[in-house]
Write a structure and sequence with these properties.
Elements lengths: L10 H6 L3 E5 L2 E6 L3 H10 L2 E4 L4 E6 L3 H8 L12 E7 L5 E11 L2 E6 L4 H10 L7 E4 L5 E6 L3 H9 L11 E6 L2 E6 L8 E6 L1 H13 L3 E3 L1 H10 L34 H10 L3 E8 L10 E4 L2 E11 L6 E8 L8 E6 L2 E8 L11
Parallel strand pairs: 3-13
Antiparallel strand pairs: 1-2, 3-9, 4-7, 4-8, 5-6, 6-7, 9-12, 10-11, 11-12, 14-17, 14-19, 15-16, 15-18, 16-17, 18-19
Helix pairs in contact: 2-7
């Protein structure tokens, strides 16, 4: 199994730094360096850097690029200025989620899609299969890019100092292509941590050199362990946990990203029906009493039976509380509803709360 894992362009650097490595989405990725708590706190209070070169990149180009992206994406990119980024999902006809992704608008005839590592092959095939009849070319550019995410309240000043470019001009969810060291480097004000920060896409050689400069500047390298604790605390979903082929964006409590007033898109009918009729279950937050730690797959009970299960759970590093996101049947999804979480042979009292356990600190 191990020899089939793909290595990112920064793999040797992680090993040299003594990172704990583990398979993730078909890649050999760093889980932690100094430790999850230390790395988590660096991002919340200072600055940290993640290797996210495992993410997939797909370019859609052609006369029908806008029409095609609108056809496969639940959010509405109509009338957006060039350089704008959108979060949303691609869905199957039945409303189930193909993937959640970021759509970068280069111009009306060119879009750059950033997809999840574990889904690259499946997504690329699905996108290409649905491109019939549209005047577009779909190119999987995943192998071309390295990518780092520099995240935290000091991300802007740190990156500006290292790159010598003005990043204050970048508003949240916008991007720009800069000419750096003789090549085009895409920098976006995005991330997956709930903090201000940037994602930098460049050639493997460029990203290696940027990583080295970040290390020299004393930036904390961060693994996927704290990437998960950070995204979870601010209620961001992980594909495979809070979203999947069996979980629609409506059930995931992400209907704000599904724009039903735009023209036809794949899955629209099913999602419109769910929105109109309501869903039988949805993702909510849970807060547990005491110190018990809920984990993915643990049953949620009410009235003496199972009414749901935990999708992600942690002792929140930023708040010190035992919290979880869970898929719960109606009517047990209402805020303030008491439930129990079964952890091994014991059950622990919990209450339904908002699924954002910590306030986001994005650049206004």
């Amino acid at each position: 199994m191990e020899e089939n894992l793909t290595k990112t362009c920064l793999h040797d650097r992680h090993v040299k730094l003594g990172a704990l490595m583990s398979p993730f989405g078909g890649f050999d990725m760093p889980i932690q360096y100094a430790g999850i708590t230390e790395e988590h706190n660096a991002v919340r209070n200072d600055v940290g850097v993640f290797d996210v070169s495992h993410m997939g990149e797909v370019r859609v180009k052609g006369k029908d690029a806008y029409k095609f992206v609108s056809h496969i994406f639940v959010n509405d990119v109509t009338g957006a200025p060039d350089g704008q980024i959108f979060y949303g999902m691609m869905c199957y006809e039945n409303g189930g989620t193909v993937d959640d992704l970021l759509v970068y608008k280069v111009n009306d005839e060119e879009y750059f899609l950033v997809i999840n590592a574990a889904n690259i092959d499946k997504d690329v095939k699905w996108i290409k299969d649905n491109a019939a009849g549209f005047d577009v070319t779909v190119t999987d550019e995943s192998p071309l890019y390295g990518e780092v995410a520099v995240q935290g309240p000091k991300a802007e000043e740190t990156l500006e100092k290292i790159l010598g470019v003005d990043l204050k001009q970048l508003a949240f969810y916008t991007f720009k292509v800069f000419s750096l060291d003789g090549e085009d480097v895409l920098i976006s004000r995005t991330g997956y941590t709930g903090e201000d920060g940037f994602e930098v896409y460049g050639s493997h050689a460029y990203i290696q050199s940027l990583w080295d400069r970040l290390m020299e500047a004393g930036v904390q390298p961060c693994g996927l362990g704290c990437r998960d604790t950070l995204r979870f605390e601010v209620g961001l979903p992980l594909y495979g946990d809070e979203l999947s082929a069996d979980i629609t964006p409506i059930e995931a409590s992400l209907s704000m990203f599904v724009k039903l007033d735009k023209p036809e898109f794949i899955g629209k009918e099913a999602l419109a029906r769910q929105k109109a009729e309501g869903v039988k279950r949805r993702i909510v937050g849970l807060e547990l009493e005491g110190n018990a730690i809920p984990r993915h797959g643990y049953p949620v009970l009410a009235d003496g039976r199972q009414v749901g299960e935990v999708t992600t759970g942690y002792r929140s590093i930023s708040t010190g509380k035992s919290v979880a996101m869970a898929m719960i049947e109606k009517p047990y999804d209402k805020l303030g509803t008491p439930v129990e979480v079964q952890i091994r042979k014991k059950t622990f009292p919990a209450v339904v709360v908002k699924k954002r356990f910590y306030d986001k600190n994005y650049k206004k």
